[in-house]
Amino acid sequence: MDRSKDNANPTILNASDLPSRRRELSAKKRDDGGTGLFDGLVPAYNYLNDPFDGPLSSSDSDDDSFEDIDEQEIYDLIAPISDPEHPLSLAELAVVNLPDIHVEPPTSPQSSISTVVVEITPTITHCSLATVIGLGVRVRLEQALPPRFRVDVRVKKGAHNTDDAVNKQLRDKERVAAALENGTLMGVIRKMLSTCE
Amino acid sequence: MSAILSADDLNDFISPGVACIKPIETLPAHPPESNSNAYEVTTEEHATASQPRTPAQISLTDCLACSGCVTSAEAVLVQLQSHNEVLSTLDAHPSLRTPWLAHNGTNGKLNNILNGVNGHYQQEGKLFVASVSPQTRASLAALFSVSEVEAGNMINQLLSGASGLRASGVHGSDFTWVIDTNIVREACLVAAADEVASTLSPDVTPSSSTGFEGAIDTTPKQPILTSACPGWICYAEKTHPEILPHLSRLKSPQALTGTLLKSVLSQRYNVPPSQIWHLAIMPCFDKKLEASRSELTSTAWLPNHDTTHDPVRDVDCVITARELLHLASARNISFSSLPRSPLPSSSRIPFPDPSIDAFLFPPRRKNQSVLAGPSGGYMYHILRTYQAQHPGSEISESPGRNADVVVYSLTQGSKSIIKTARYYGFRNIQNLVRGLKPAKVSKLPGARMGVSRRPGGSSAAARESVKDYAYVEVMACPGGCTNGGGQIKVSEVEEVRALEGIQSVNRETTVGRPGLTEQKEWLRRVDEAYFSGSDEESADEDGDLNMVEPEASKLNGLLDEDVVNGISRSYIHNMISHWSGITGVSTQDLLYTSYRKVESDVGKKKQSDVERVAGLASALGGGW
Amino acid sequence: MSSLQIQPLATLSPPSNSRCWQSVPHPSQPLIATACSDKTVRVFSLTSFTLLHSISGGHKRSVRSVSWKPHTKGQSVLATGSFDASAGIWRRVERGPEEDFTRHGRDDDEEEDDEDYQFSCILDGHEHEIKSIVWSPSGQYLATCSRDKSVWIWEELEDDNFETVAVLQEHDQDVKCVAWHPEEDLLASASYDDTIRLYREDQDDWVQVCCINGHSETVWCIEFEGSGMGEKDFRAQKGELSEEQIQHIELLERSGPRLASCSDDSTVRIWRRQPKEGADHANGHAGVPSIIRSFSVDEEWVEDAVLPQRHDRVIYSISWSRKSGLLASTGSDGKIVIYKERWKEQISNGVTAAGVDKVVNGIEAPSRHRMTEWVVAAELYSAHDVFEVNHAVWAKRCDKGRRSDDEEIIVSTGDDGEVKAWTVEEVKPQAGG
Question: Which sections of the protein are WD repeats (chain C) (predicted)?
């Protein structure tokens, strides 16, 4: 792998080659999607329950419409996220790839909690921004998916030289929550997500 | 051990993040001299000058500005200032013995030196000078079961003796002088007492000058806090900028030794500062940080400093006792078998200035008494200076809440003259800093303030008492400098002794993790070595503390006002004015330095958010 | 197999519209304080399940943890730990046992000042987010822990005059939780570095006396067993106990209260201190080398049990009932699980005796015969709908429907911003299916 500080020449995928269902997803978007989502976030951190229909009636009424959320839809949600360093999307840089996304059904019939697992592939194995990219993906999905989804973002095995440490940090809800209260970090995340329509 | 920087933290070091690697060419040559904002971020200041340049390198000052990766900074420090650095420098340069003799004239002009390459100089050669702290000697003395004087002799033998470093290496380079920092400390102690006197003087309005709080030309506010402990300074600058006005402006003995050597040799004897390589052997890793401060370079004292020229650090490299042993073993020298006798005086090269030679190499040396404490005795010397000025006054000591807090007061009859205190260790520093906070300042500004349930309650009284001290000797390590982070730890004793091929002297055997009792016993022995070793007691094999008795008996007696603890103020004052005279540098620039708030974020300006976030994120474990 | 049933009792109102982290019942009053990510603390009544006070305007970031000071007279003292790296102390004069007023329409400033929680002091020193804050049972010490890897112990010398008595930096990572032993000045901390560490005062310094390695992921929460539980839990049913069972009870008595922990590894574990044989007899043993004694401050904690695994994601919180010895856990999967300890069916005498022998020697065989077992007594799915549950705690039941003075409820706190009260009832034979 290129060991230079900046991966100046990352492999870029052609947008037309990226997997897409070419389907309008607007029906499932938050009404305040895009950057606007975060404006209220720094002062009043609230992202988990700002869905349009309020916190109390989240699951049952929505379940049907979200029943068919699959890997492609997850991919479509995170593909347009911008890389924090390059003016390219995570999909174009092949940081997120469709085969590395898995939606796992509830583990018990009594549970309605599904799990989304996204494995990201940083462009260079020592990328110090891996936790930031992972955080962006996690935030994007927690924003866009109904709360019955648990989002696990990991670095693909072998894709980063400290992947265990990065994974542990990304899995830690408390640290993710605290990071979202950090204005500088949120500024970067907001910018990364500004390309998500 | 300093709470901020300790070698124990190294295990969470991964690697410097992208944000830490800063191409050298983007660095401005010199920070603007009259910066409008005194609390400017330090990140953009120049890289340390004497380091070999590589395309991308971390400047230590950069690292200090970043709260996220202090451990990375430390790893770099350990790398830059290590026994390997000493070895490679010795191998790269032959030692210059008497470079001042190579040039005639005491009238050499500064420009001559500064304006670059002068054919007369042996550019390859360096004048190697070492300064050794008494705590390091004590640590080695306890380790090898020798006296502190013998440990000092062994260090001299290693650095300058025939069987030492000189015996091998590319050029057979070794150290021309080995200086006891206790000697230069005497100047620090006298100056510290003068500083307290000027702060307490009713004539002086503190911090009235145009400088920022913490600037070199301001008088510190009461209570004055010791600034010789770099762990404490690093913490204060990073976390408690509000206490900077209280810091003593005085340089530490390590820094002052460097300034003395380099200023006199360059200004008076035409040896450029870059040709003098000054190694300090210290009880503390954080001293490496101190050595890298941009305030402690030739820019601070060279008149008409040419900004195109690189500043030269007053102290080029700092190593600890353990690293000194590594240094010896890297050259296949068994430290324990070095001669314990002093170097022959015939081989001694005198310092070219006779007055300073007499100051640096006095015929007899003397260690501090137990009452002075293990950290240089600042507070004790100040107290004794005041006592000498107030005949019949008495010092009383009251223990604080733990062994690392002691409060002293000097009274004359019923009149209180001054109160001083010792605060060692991070937890006590917390209480000190909290006590110094303005009572009304609160980080919860929007909170509804409670009505005071107890007007004039005792909590207010407790806060006042800290502010009542004239001087507080603050050290980051519990137990003070003899327990510094760079000292040989109790857990290492057996290992080091085994490496050195010597048996344990006592029947003690350590199994598993040494407990607190072992630690305290080890520290007691190091302290014992530290407080022993004034020359007349060096023969005292059992090393008990009888020697302090005469000192103690004099404690409340009448003393000559000039001589305090055997240090003559007038002699030190004369020496300092002589120094200032021959160098043409003001005493302020020689003796004092400044402190500034360090932004705790990765440089807030001139850096994109992404870089800052990379800094946040790359501090693994500490990352967001 | 469940013998208990968790039934909804109330949702405390009004709910917050953002994540709540933790709810802590007052030691004597029918109050519960909830730490919220909206930077406030909400104090609810446990009799009416309604909001009494909202403490705001202090912290700049999420309030992560709260703790009531025990044994206060005439006032309630609340400590708050926040992501803004500071801790706050808040006080309110308590005038009567039941103040069930609502704050609506109160505009008189003086009146309000008097009745609200008032900020009284700030404790700063941590460099990063405070994750947990807790008073010692005596009220003498306050412990805090932070992402800066440190655990601090503060002592309140007099009202609002706090002194830092220790800064413990043993952990390699973020420290998630601190907990005090109910009888001794023994502090435990749990960390992102997967370990639990215990500290006590030796001479005038707090030092680590034990490091427990056992979990394979972040340890999120730890709690000590209550004091004197031998009278209340499975041990209370005296009578037909075997020799081994009596020995086991004695062993537990000598060990003192145990420690429970939960982790991202989805397990709940119980730890027990090895009784110090050496310490009891050291003075009498002339042959003991002096070197051993210096380690006497060290403690050995061994794994006493691993509870049945019922969570499939990270477990955020456990609570050990002081009344019944029942243990409740909750976490990311939204479940609340209650576990109960009971005597195991006796096997052969030989195995048991050998096991006890080994314990006495201070070496515990991994296959030690366990005298007791933990079973799942109740399991509740989707306690907060599909949201994660951050905290569940046992509390004394105080509402009108209370069936006995000792009845306990569980109060759970979730990402949905809700705080919910649950009753725990025995399943009647005809009702249990």
Answer: 56-90, 123-155, 168-199
The answer to whether residue C431 is domain-embedded is no
> What is the number of domains present in chain C?
1
* Burial (CB count <10 Å: 0-12, 13-18, 19+), residue C259: buried
Quick check: B17 contacting A, CB < 8 Å?
Answer: yes
User: Dihedral (C-alpha) B575, B577, B581, B587: value to the nearest 10 degrees?
Assistant: 120
Judged by a CB distance cut-off of 8 A, whether residue C348 touches chain B is no
Residue C135 lies in a domain: yes
Q: Is residue C139 part of a domain?
A: yes
B286 in Cβ contact with B4 (< 8 Å): yes
Domains for chain B: give ranges and CATH numbers: 1-69+605-624 (no CATH), 206-249+369-437+461-502+515-567 (3.40.950.10)
Does residue A136 sit within a domain? yes
Domain of A119: which CATH number? 3.30.300.130
Q: Which domain does C398 fall in, by range?
A: 4-275+302-426
Inter-residue contact C322 to C394 (CB < 8 Å): yes
Distance from CA of A187 to the nearest CA of B (A): 7
The minimum CA-CA distance between C205 and chain B, rounded to whole Å, is 8
Distance of alpha carbon C169 from alpha carbon C151, whole angstroms? 7
| Domain CATH for C391 | 2.130.10.10
ipTM of the complex: 0.85
Residue C48 near residue C100 (C-beta atoms within 8 A)? yes
pTM of the model: 0.79
- Cβ <8 Å between B621 and A135: no
Residuewise pLDDT in 10s, chain C (433 residues): 558 999 999 999 999 999 999 999 999 999 999 999 999 999 999 999 999 999 998 899 999 999 999 999 999 999 999 999 999 999 999 875 544 444 444 444 444 445 789 999 999 999 899 999 999 999 999 999 999 999 999 999 887 889 999 999 999 999 999 999 999 999 999 999 999 999 999 878 899 999 999 999 999 999 999 999 999 999 987 678 888 999 999 999 999 999 999 999 999 999 999 987 654 444 434 443 434 334 568 899 999 999 999 999 999 999 999 999 999 999 999 999 999 999 987 655 444 444 444 444 444 444 456 899 999 999 999 999 999 999 999 999 999 999 999 999 999 999 999 999 999 999 876 544 4
Binding-face residues of C in 78-97 toward B, CB within 8 A: 84, 86, 88, 91
Range of the domain at A146: 67-197
